[in-house]
Amino acid sequence: MSARNFLTPSAARVAPFVIFVLLTAAQGKFGSASAYWFYFAKTLAGLGMIIAVRPLVTEMRWAFSWEAVVVGIGVFVMWIGITGDWTTQNALWIKLGFSSASKTLPLVWNPNEQFGQGSTLAGFFVVARILGSTFVVPPIEEMFYRSFLYRYLAKPDFLSIPLNRFSPRPFFITALLFGFAHNEWLAGILCGLAYQWLVLRKNRLGDAMTAHAITNCLLGVWVVWQGAWNFW
How far apart are CA 88 and CA 85, in angstroms? Predict the structure, then answer.
């Protein structure tokens, strides 16, 4: 039985994201090694869900353009360049008095520490993370944020809203939610604005998916090259 038989247009765009988030929340909850195995599992699950809903989400098609390349590289540069003692949620909530330092220490995703520098498993999970963040995360997140949420906030009958219709309130709300779904909240907000601009400009989802993939791939390479595991 195909996804077409039991998924509504909303569910096709929301369910993969929700399941992906739930699997993300389970990372590290069953021992430190589970952070890595659950990432691999959610990547496979995400790929399966993308394939399953693809017939229902016709706008989820990769597209290439110079704008997508520029935005993808620009967001990467911005992501690693925006630094400060308040630009991450871990630090922000402490400064605002909503949490203590002991409660906000981030889990550093570093397979070299878990499995040993240069080990086969460490290398496997590094590759899995880069491939997953490059080819699985962008379709799932863009499908939810840019195809569904942005248009749903404009009108519950979201399919009646063209992808290139600009609506100020959904534009900024979606970017805020996208930003605060990441530890690097400020970079995340700007990133969300940039990807949404791409969708509005091109009247399709594929360019934002490509830009998102370029950003994540470059970030993955940077993390491994520079040992900047805090970005993961």
Answer: 7
Q: What CA–CA distance (Å, rounded) separates 22 from 158?
A: 25
Sign of the four-CA dihedral 161, 164, 170, 173: positive
Within 10 angstroms of residue 59's Cβ, the number of other Cβ atoms is 18
Instruction: Answer left, alpha or beta for residue 203, where phi above 0 means left and psi between -120 and 50 means alpha.
Output: left
Residue linked to tokens 């993955």: 220
Six-digit token pair at 77? Answer: 């540069």
List pLDDT tens digits, range 129-156. Answer: 999 999 999 999 999 999 999 999 999 9
Provide the pLDDT for residue 98.
83
Could you tell me if 174 and 143 are in contact, meaning their C-beta atoms sit under 8 angstroms apart? no
For 33-68, what is each residue's pLDDT tens digit? 999 999 999 999 999 999 999 999 999 999 999 999
Using CA atoms, how far apart are residues 212 and 133, in angstroms rounded to an integer?
9
Cα-trace Rg, the chain: 18
Domain parsing of the chain, residue ranges: 63-231
